[in-house]
Amino acid sequence: MIRTNLSTRPFYNERVVRFWLLAFGVLLVAATVFNVTRIIHYSRSDTELATQAARDEARAAELRTSAARLRASVDLKQVDFSSSEARQANELIDRRTFSWTELFNRFEATLPEEVRISSVRPKLEKRGFALTIVVVSRDVDQVNLFMENLERTGAFADLLVSEEHFNEQGQLEASLVTVYLPAAGRAEASGAKAQ
């Protein structure tokens, strides 16, 4: 092998090779530093998240224990008793709620032209409101028609004529007695609308 250099100035490309090796080394060191910082960052983050998860699990276990203790302290008989008392109170409120507007709207919808209502007296009973309705008409057929119309609404039960007589003007005056159940009439009306 010939080791003689025939050029006037020998050039072996050592500087270029060294430059590229140095650049590659710097790049390698930068990548290593970046990776090390990322590893440190992610390991810290992982440690913080693990600590937070452990705290959350401990808190969840504490809350489960507290909930079990509270469930054990609840007396189911007392809850049943309270709910039945509340149901009875709601029923009493519903029974005591009396809407004159609703009642007169029902009368207006069912009243024949030849019949007039002269008085209405409600009285609260266990089944509902007992109504005494005094009507004035020229004949019995119109009063019967009014009674049939009231029964068809479903809000009036046990409709009877308790008394009837002719007054000084020659008109029939009849006292009707019935049990008024407004909730039953509302349910029947909403069922009729649905059909």
Lay out the secondary structure.
Blueprint lengths: L13 H60 L2 H21 L3 H11 L4 E10 L4 E9 L2 H14 L2 E11 L5 E9 L1 H13 L1
Antiparallel strand pairs: 1-2, 2-4, 3-4
**Terminal-residue CA separation:** 113 Å
What is the level-2 CATH architecture name of the largest domain?
Answer: 2-Layer Sandwich
Largest sheet: 4 strands, antiparallel
Low-confidence stretches: 189-195
Counted beta strands: 4
How helical, in percent, are the residues?
A: 55-70%
The overall number of domains is: 2
CATH class (first level) name of the largest domain: Alpha Beta
Structural class: alpha+beta
Strand content: 15-25%
Round the mean pLDDT to the nearest integer and report it. Answer: 84
Tally of DSSP helical segments: 5
Shape: rod-shaped
Corresponding CATH superfamily of the largest domain: General secretion pathway protein M, EpsM
CATH topology of the largest domain: Gyrase A, domain 2
Strand arrangement, largest sheet? 1-2-4-3
